[in-house]
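Quick one from the shared queue. A colleague (R.T.) flagged Phosphatase PAP2 family protein as missing a structural entry in our internal table.

Convert sequence to structure tokens.
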Amino acid sequence: MTDRSLDVPVAPVVPAPAPVEVRVLAAVQDAVGGPQTLAVARGMSHFGEHALGWLALGAVGAAVDRPRRAEWLWSAAAVAFAHGASIGVKRVVRRPRPDHPQVRVGVGTPSKLSFPSSHATSTTAAAVLYGGLLRSRAPLVVVPAMALSRLVLGVHYPTDVATGAGLGAGVALAARRVIPRLIRKKRS
């Protein structure tokens, strides 16, 4: 094979094997990335953008559950803190978002930084904290759903969402210990 403009031999183009995370990401998209799933994933993405949907739910909880208003507001503040922490980590790590021919990007993002997933962070923090206030584990089902949505949309690697979920859980568990102290301190 030759390039006619240069008349020199050209090696056939064989793409290098994709890194494991890119292969996993592409496999997830191929397995569950149909039109309906993409529509749901985009909706989840918009809901979770800048943690605004989770913050709004915290405000609703505070408005509806007047006896535990302070707990809801502090929990929403912890969700905002978790989101901010993920952004801080992104700015230090500076891992770029997936950019590979095997990966289809299905939604725009406010930054080009990927690690960790802020959506996974704030979703996990909200699920743990609000689930505790509701005395239910049911909110935890949104964690894997949001994590999967980030893969389906092609905007995060698997380790981005796993680390984001871990960061969100860590912030939420710390907040669960601190919030009662803050409320007791304020009341005294």
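The chain has seven helices and two strands.
The beta strands are 2-3, 8-9.
Added to the table.
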